[in-house]
Amino acid sequence: MKTIVVKNGYRGKKPVIRLEFPYDFELKEAIKKFEGVDWDPKEKVWWIAYTDDRLTELLTFFKGRIWLVILSLNG
């Protein structure tokens, strides 16, 4: 099963959830289907605005399809 590393970060002063992985076409296409996700071309990372609900939605969305390795998530 493919793996995405999930980390906390900031866009300006807003907390975000960073979704990091080496380039993989299938993972990229799967992430693009998650509502509210955006690509940061400078940092080369996918991200979504952080809320507890969004984190739960993310876990549910990928459950059974992609491993999520969660590192240092706290709002």
Question: In terms of topology, how is this protein built?
Answer:
Layout: E1 3-11, E2 14-20, H1 25-32, E3 38-40, E4 45-49, H2 52-62, E5 67-71
Word description of this protein:
This protein has 75 residues and is of the alpha+beta class. It has a single domain (3-71), classed as MutS, DNA mismatch repair protein, domain I (3-Layer(aba) Sandwich). 25% of the residues lie in helices and 39% in strands. It has a 5-stranded mixed beta sheet, covered by helices on one side.
What descriptive keywords fit this protein?
single chain, 75 residues, alpha+beta, MutS, DNA mismatch repair protein, domain I, 5-stranded mixed sheet, 2 helices, 5 strands, 39% strand, globular
Structural class by secondary-structure content: alpha+beta
Strand content: 35-45%
Low-confidence stretches: none
Overall outline? globular
The N- and C-terminal alpha carbons lie at a distance of 28 Å
User: Total number of β-strand segments?
Assistant: 5
CATH class: Alpha Beta
Give the topology string: H per helix, E per strand: EEHEEHE
Overall number of domains: 1
Short description:
Helices cover 25% and strands 39% of the residues. The chain has two helices and five strands.
